[in-house]
Design goal:
The protein is built from 33 helices and 25 strands. By secondary structure, it is of the alpha/beta class.
Amino acid sequence: MPLSPNIDTICSTARLVRGVTLQYQQQALKAGASLWQAAEIFTLPQWLDALIGNAALLGLLPADALPVMTLSPIAEAYLWEQAIETCLAKHEASALFDIRAMAKTAIEANNLMLNWQISEADINQPFITQETRQFLRWRHTFETLCAKQNALEASRLVALHIALITQYQQAISQVLTLPAKINLAGFDRITPLEKSLFDGLKACGVQVEMLSTSTVNQPKIAYYAIADAQQECRAAVAWAKQKLANNPQAQLAIISPVLSNIRRLLTDLLDDAFHPEALHSSLFEAPRCYDFSLGLSLTEYPLVHSALRLLRLATTKALLRFDEITPILQDVHWGCVAEIDARAQLDAYARKHLNASYPLAALTKQASRLQSHGIQLEGLSTHLALLDQFQQKSKSRQLPSAWVTAFVSLLETINWAKVRALSSHEYQMQQAFYKSLNELGALDVLLGKVSAGEALQKIAELCSATMFQPESTGEVHIQVLGLLETPAVALDAVWALNMNDQHWPPAVRLNPLLPAELQRSRGTPNASASVQSQFAALVQQRLVTCATEVVFSYALKEDDRELRSSPLLADQVLSAQQADTMQTLAESLAKPAIMQMLDDFMAPPVLPEEKVRGGVKLFATQAICPAWAFYQYRLGAGKLDLPIDGLDNMSRGSLLHKVLQFFWQDCQSLSHLKAMTSAQRVAAIQMAIAKSIAVLGHESDFHIPAQVMQIEQQRLQQLIDVWLDLELDRADFTVTACEKAYALDVDGLALNLTIDRIDTLATGDLVVIDYKTGSSVTNRSWADERIAEPQLPIYTVLALMHEEVAAVCFAKIRTEDSKFIGLSAEAGVLPAVTDLSKVTANSAFQRFSDWDELLEHWYRSLSHIAQEIKAGEASVSISKEIDLAYCDVKPLLRLPERLLQFEHRQAALQAAGLNT
């Protein structure tokens, strides 16, 4: 692109302006110049602004020819939304419309009308659609709103500038010095509006030419058919690495029609190939040898996302969800970094003690409660209090600028972006965020007074629409571009990937608010297949002449779907080659090595001073899988709770336990139960339920709506009533204990447990009962060497070892399937519970000759499990994987890896002929 300082260059994009300017400077330096005249390089709006500004200053234009204000994109979108809402206010389905999406489509239609010089007379023909008729109404309302503010949107301002230049062409050309020549860079498509400008300039004697990017007449072109899009990216990066290895000064480009789809993958692969040191956090922002033309939305950067999350927390009037609070507590961009571990503890604690949704004050209360247990959360508590105060004060309506000031002040107060010194990229993100805030502050006149939530919504929209890419120094050799972009520098080689038919040419996409036939006849962008094909062919022709070597590639498959090449490559598909790829850093490091096998089935033994938690569950998990018990109860591993709104199954079970506890503490015996009338029994159940709910409310911070609790009361009333009918069929008994706690020493292991209920029969023998509300309740494991359901055996042979126990059972309490499940020493102790002497021949309990032998088995099995725990037995040994259905630490057991190792060993044995 040879340039001269005595001409103006108009570029299609601001990025191309920077690239052409840099190239001009490099040309001057190569020519040996130490000083040179700055080149006049602009975008079209910049060039028009400069020309019209000069004309206005010299009095060549009427004083009222220009608007007072130019609408920013968000201001334009807001006025369109306001116009659409006004027009649809009386529509019966107005609440169902997506106003923001409709405004976006309307802006696009309005821009098409302006740039392609489509008048309302062209549109307003008989038989136009209802959508088009509505759009014209919206447009009139939008123009009225703009007129009230004496403002114009950017596209209409360009049209006005061009109209003024055409109207006052003679005066401008006589007084102002127009450039002798204008070069157009990057204009693959010139709109009728732009053509009218360039024709007018030509009439004034200005030479207008396209700045050619073609540097090669006969480039070397190759075509590659590659397995899938990921392999395409790997091949392109491998190609770039080979090119730079051969010529470190080469200028390359990797180009895609769907760059946004593969941006992250390409970033990872380019870093892997050229900047593996970037894996280190201190070098993450080091200059790169590649540069993306496409940035990311500002909201995708962690620092900005953090600010928006905090402001949303401070302004929301709705209850907060736990999955919104978790990332806030884990966010390292605010608060006190020394408390990050304590904040994680708060997250886990809140999940256990709060609903899925709760107010901010409830979280503050939980933080205070943890502080009382010695967890250091002073900074967080202070910041949560500040957020809560802001939430209470943010109910008023203020001007956007006032909210911006309040938001900035709040963020500074809660230590956002002040936890540590910001890196260069983070500082740029912060400044871009503040710039977005200032843009909102400039909308006072348009928006008027708004709520805090509305102000934050506009800020989020601004940040989402702002494409941001941190500036960094470094010598760039690889340009990563979209296919429609013009390279800003001369290139040596280009790789165009994703050249499949669904991507290139781009699909037809008519604007639904303008007549389809009108768009086709005018040849507007995306209007028809022929328009798209012609435009794509033009872009592709530019591409094949911009470098000495050009590569086109396309994917053969996407998942299970077969793909085709672009029709523009149809003639070359038969000559497509296979591309080379390269290993990633991880793949190159993952070489076969001599493996050191370590047996990890034994953990350190339990020390005398070690307190092993878990209670009965410790024994149960040790019996099922020793590693499970070790990870969860000795190391403290576990999953985070998933709270729900209302009562979960565990809470319902606990509530049922409480109801039965309070009922039997009042009733005390079967004779008392039989003596009750129906009304008395209902009243006793209701009283027990009321006491249980009061205890639940005192012991937890769950907020349960009154309607939900009323349904739960009805459920409990019915459930307890059905269960008591079953209790009436028992032999006479007295309830000796409910929810009785025991502290035991089992072979040196401290074991704390609570027995749901102990009944005393007329004979003086005891019946031990454990309540269950699940659908799957069984006592089959009681006969196993490793007892997977050990609670009742533990109660019987350890807690009550000096008592005479006549029966042990689960009380399965369900509306349609309530029953006792267990064993008894003699017949008739419990309804439907078989005594040990009458078990069936195929029963696992057949091997026990009497009750004492069963108790001895239980004691021996539990003692063996206790000795395993003390010794540190922690092997991954299970009989059935289904037994791990409720294992919180299942990923730590690494079952798939163990299965793979077993298969490898079997294969090796078979290969050696050692396994038949």
